[in-house]
Amino acid sequence: MQNPLISIVIPFKNTEAFIGDCLNSILKQTYTNWELLIVDDHSTDNSYYIVEKHAKTDNRITLLKNPEHGIIKALQWAFKHSSGQLITRMDSDDIMHPDKLEVLATHLINNGKGHLAVGLVNYFAENGIKAGYKSYEVWLNTLTKKGTNYSEIYKECVIPSPCWMIYRDDFITCNGFNPDRYPEDYDLAFRFYKHGFKCIPCNDVLHDWRDYSHRTSRTDEHYAENHFIPLKLDYFLELDYNASKTLVVWGAGNKGKHIAKALIKKNISFEWICDNPKKIGKNIYGKILKPFNILKTIKNPQSIITVANKEDQTDIRNFLKNIKMKPIEDYVFFC
């Protein structure tokens, strides 16, 4: 097998409790031809000194300081200093399985450019994982095993942010970490999708994903729900919206209202349906909510579904299947 250099990029800020374990997991990799570009985003704890100690004993580790602020700027700075043919990201509070780099690199080399290597993930926490995170793990891993990650890209981020690998040339083609848009991992997943990089199926758990109360994705405003919906809608309108179809918004909860308001602002015509008898017939933002079964009579519809309840989603899928609707082409789930 070829042995190309892998560039691992890591932003970090105040993760002194975990960063030593993260670095040790990288040092234990069975694949040894790697470089680590690790960027301190203005830590105020001992994180920097822990990394500095490791960097002094292994010249594959390059410790940098973020000249600006934020994860995106740190990632950009790391990539600027990288030189590997293959690129991957890691989070400073997580742990790599010993064969992670080897498995991802092997998959990528065997399949060539135009592909994205991904692996299964395992959520863990000192006090146990909450049901929501476990559900996300199972859903994400189910997609990854089949390589069908993009099939549900409008629901949640379908690429595990710290468990992917891609050829450098492909990463540059999709503009890498350059756009200053949060959540940056979801935005990157959409750009992988936009450029048609095929996800390589994987059956191996390669990454331990740590959860804790002050994790950035839990506390930073950039990862709040109000950032996810505009991101999804903008990419949907760019990549999958078919203006020759009748756009339909399904659901009148907070997400449905947010999307309806955004579409009205963009002057995009749509029908609005729901299955809540208390809302059917109401006028919201100048639109009358109609019963869901009217979908059967709408000519050539394309639906954005914002219903979050899992049982209701199953019923909706069955309903759409019965009337011969196809995912992405005829409908997308936004939650």
Describe the structure in your own words.
The chain has 335 residues and is of the alpha/beta class. The chain contains 11 helices and 17 strands. It has helices at 19-27, 47-57, 71-80, 100-111, 131-146, 168-173, 184-194, 216-219, 225-239, 254-265, 310-322, and strands at residues 6-12, 34-40, 61-65, 86-89, 95-96, 115-118, 120-124, 164-167, 198-200, 205-210, 246-250, 271-274, 283-284, 287-288, 290-291, 301-305, 331-333. It has a 7-stranded mixed beta sheet with strand order 3-2-1-4-8-6-9, sandwiched between helices. Strands 15-12-11-16-17 form a 5-stranded parallel beta sheet, covered by helices on one side. It has a 3-stranded mixed beta sheet with strand order 5-10-7. Strand 1, helix 1 (19-27) and strand 2 form a beta-alpha-beta unit. It is elongated. The two termini are 41 Å apart. The model has no long low-confidence stretch (mean pLDDT 94).
Tally of extended strands?
Answer: 17
What structural category arises from helix and sheet content? alpha/beta
Low-confidence stretches: none
Total helical segments: 11
Radius of gyration, CA atoms, in whole angstroms: 22 Å
Instruction: Report strand %.
Output: 15-25%
Mean pLDDT across every amino acid position: 94
Which term fits the overall shape?
Answer: elongated
Distance between the termini: 41 Å
Q: Give the proportion of residues in helices.
A: 25-40%
How do the SSEs run, as a string of H and E? EHEHEHEEHEEHEHHEEHHEHEEEEEHE
